[in-house]
Amino acid sequence: MNQQNDREIFTRLREANPNPTTELEYSTPFELLVAVTLSAQATDKGVNKATAKLFPVANTPAAILALGEDGLKEYIKTIGLFNSKAANIIKACKMLIELHGGEVPRDRKALEALPGVGRKTANVVLNTAFGEPTMAVDTHIFRVANRTKIAPGTTVRQVEDKLLKVVPKEFLRDAHHWLILHGRYVCVARKPRCGACIIYDLCEYKEKTA
Ligand code: SF4
To answer: Which ranges carry the HhH-GPD domain (predicted)?
Structure first.
């Protein structure tokens, strides 16, 4: 994949969706942090359904702690792995209060030190809550980057590092949203919808359909 193709791919993705964002519903960095933590191995839709009830009642570390672990579970019990997610969120809330004045830190190390927060979650929060040009590689981005050959790699970290290198600067902040949405709705896992793909001619996937 050459630079000109990369630029053309993101130009088209931007034209189709000039202001992309996450499909998780949130209104503060803390709400986003909780939503992303809940979204591991769960759908955004399922998370939104739970947080629509949770956030009006508790959307700060102090309010979640006041709910307690069992109280929190009541709101998130429809989401996979809710027991461990509840435990992690409670521990993270304690750390946010003790170490960061109850605020979500704009700092990768501090974010990754929170229970249940890995590199991907930190990348989403840094990007979507704070506007930093990070690349949160999930299963969709991993697939699209490899199929198209924008940033082929065998590990998530390899793909992340390559994307950060090859995506032209002007697209960096929004690139991960475009790639996730493209993977979720067009370049789907089982049978990519190549016939409806706006980057068909630029994609280097050998098994393109249509
Ligand atoms: S052409 Fe097909 S394989 Fe390539 S990005 Fe589009 S949907 Fe995915």
So the answer is: 38-185
